[in-house]
Design brief:
The complex is a heterodimer of chains A (112) and B (118). With 112 residues, chain A is mostly beta strands. Chain A contains no helices and 11 strands. Chain A has strands at residues 4-7, 10-13, 19-25, 31-38, 42-51, 54-57, 64-66, 76-78, 87-94, 102-103, 107-111. In chain A, strands 2, 4, 5, 6, 9, 10 and 11 form a 7-stranded mixed sheet that branches. A 4-stranded antiparallel sheet of chain A has the order 1-3-8-7, with no helix packed on it. Chain A is globular and about 35 Å long. In chain B, 0% of the residues lie in helices and 52% in strands. Chain B is built from no helices and 12 strands. In chain B, strands 2, 5, 6, 10, 11 and 12 form a 6-stranded mixed sheet that branches. Chain B has a 4-stranded antiparallel sheet with strand order 3-9-8-7, with no helix packed on it. Chain B has a two-stranded antiparallel ribbon with strand order 1-4. In chain B, a hairpin with a 4-residue loop joins strand 8 (64-69) and strand 9 (74-79). Classes of the chains: A mainly beta (112), B mainly beta (118). Chains A and B meet through strand 4, strand 5, strand 9 and strand 10 of A and strand 5 and strand 10 of B.
Chain lengths: 112, 118
């Protein structure tokens, strides 16, 4: 199993550009989530999904969209990037929302 | 409201010293889970332990041990005989099992950066 994979590893955007951060898992996990990590802030939940076709907002959802058309994939979309979205983004998955979440390697995003 | 506090921002020790990382949590739920994750300098998040609210037994795994005390809402992590490879940021996290629609969502502390010097 590859576990949780994320692409790209690093991305530079200009303000106003859009992009999609990819997340995939091959463990047949129902629960998937996106977190952002900022210095001194720990990790904060952006969006999550308890199964294909179901998504919901976390603590910091503004500026981000998600969809879950398959069990395996959970992309995170930035519609119009802002410097405040400069961060490290982690995707995670777990068998159910009551189980341990395992994290991908992260995507480092810089918005100029 | 749910909250996780890691009061120690940074800790520095010399190799072979024992070190304890503190974690205090707040929750309105009676069923919840507590976690520790390690983030080494390479940046990935490594799962260390998961403990449910009904199991207050302490746990030991090699040089790592965890002390869960519901009476003080604490879930502390001790590294015995620390090594340079233990240098990392350690995160404590909480998830609630029953509250509203947010079951399973992790609430993280801000992390404790541990530096182990040779």
């Amino acid at each position: 199993n590859a576990g949780v994979t994320q692409t790209p590893k690093f991305q530079v955007l200009k303000t106003g550009q859009s992009m999609t951060l990819q997340c995939a898992q091959d463990m047949n996990h129902e629960y998937m989530s996106w977190y952002r990590q900022d210095p001194g802030m720990g990790l904060r939940l952006i969006h999550y999904s308890v199964g294909a076709g179901i998504t919901d907002q976390g603590e910091v959802p503004n500026g981000y969209n998600v969809s879950r058309s398959t069990t395996e994939d959970f992309p995170l979309r930035l519609l119009s990037a802002a410097p405040s979205q400069t961060s490290v983004y982690f995707c995670a998955s777990s068998l159910t929302n009551q189980e341990t979440q395992y994290f991908g390697p992260g995507t480092r995003l810089l918005v100029l | 409201a749910q909250k996780v506090t890691q009061a120690q921002t940074e800790i520095s020790v010399v190799e072979k010293e024992d070190v304890t990382l503190d974690c205090v949590y707040e929750t309105r739920d009676t069923t919840y889970y507590l976690f520790w994750y390690k983030q080494p300098p390479s940046g990935e998040l490594v799962f260390l332990i998961r403990r449910n609210s009904f199991d207050e037994q302490n746990e030991i795994s090699g040089r790592y041990s965890w002390n869960f005390q519901k009476s003080t809402s604490s879930f502390n992590f001790t590294i015995t005989a620390s090594q340079v490879v233990d240098s990392a940021v350690y995160f404590c996290a909480l998830s609630e099992a029953n509250y509203g629609g947010s079951q399973g969502n992790l609430i993280f502390g801000k992390g404790t950066k541990l530096s182990v010097k040779p």
